[in-house]
Every structure is written in C-alpha cells, then in structure tokens.
Amino acid sequence: MDLLLDLIATLSRWSRSHLSDIALAIMATLLVLFGPGINAWLQQRVGGLNFLLRTLLFVLLCVLGYGLAMIFLTPLLAKGLGYFNNYTLAPVLLLVLFLIGVLADRN
Fold first, then answer.
1. Among 14, 36, 27, 7, which residue's Cα sits nearest to residue 76?
2. Residue 77 near residue 26, CB atoms below 8 Å
C-alpha cells in the first residue's frame, strides 16, 4: 500500500510542476470536443443573417470566444487543480483524462 501511495505522490509532484501545460492540454481538448456543437448552435441562431455579418460573428466567436477561453480559463483550471494535495492530484487528473476520453469516444 505504501508503494502505491508513494507512486501517487510522485506522479502528483511531477504533475504539479507541469500543471499549466496539463491545464492547457485539457482546455484545448475540451474546445476541440465542444467547439463543433458551439459552432452549430451559433450557426442555427444566425443562419438567416447577411453573409458578412454571419462571417463576422463566427470570426468573433473563434478569435474572441475560443481565444479568451484559452487565455483566461486555462490559468483558472491550473489554479483549481493546484488545490489538490499530492495524494489526490494524480488520481483526479487520471479521472479527468479518462472522462475526456469517454467524451471523445462518444463524439
């Protein structure tokens, strides 16, 4: 049991030193997974508008919406993950990555 706890603590310490990169990877993956649904929702809402206005709205969504999400939500996610201690961080990250994998498989 001590060997397993030591392994979890070691993985958590290593993960903690790379938490910003891990959070960036999680955010990018979530945007890739949910981006088409968000785009389809926006297309449904603005489908009857002029071509130029519709294109401008999609550009704003992609540049501002997705860009700002990557810039501002990634540090928040890294900060939130940083609150876990060394015995829970690695299992939480594994669970999050597993759930993202399940979501990706369903899409």
1. 27
2. yes
Tokens of 69: 């999400």
**Contact, 81 vs 92, CB < 8 A?**
yes
Please give the structure tokens belonging to residue 95: 């669970």
Q: Which two tokens stand for residue 93?
A: 């990250």
Q: Dump pLDDT digits (tens) for 23-78.
A: 999 999 999 999 999 989 988 988 888 888 888 988 988 889 899 999 999 999 99
d(CA 89, CA 66): 27
CB 82 within 8 A of CB 76: no
Closest CA to 97 of 36, 11, 39: 11
14 pLDDT tier (thresholds 50, 70, 90): very high
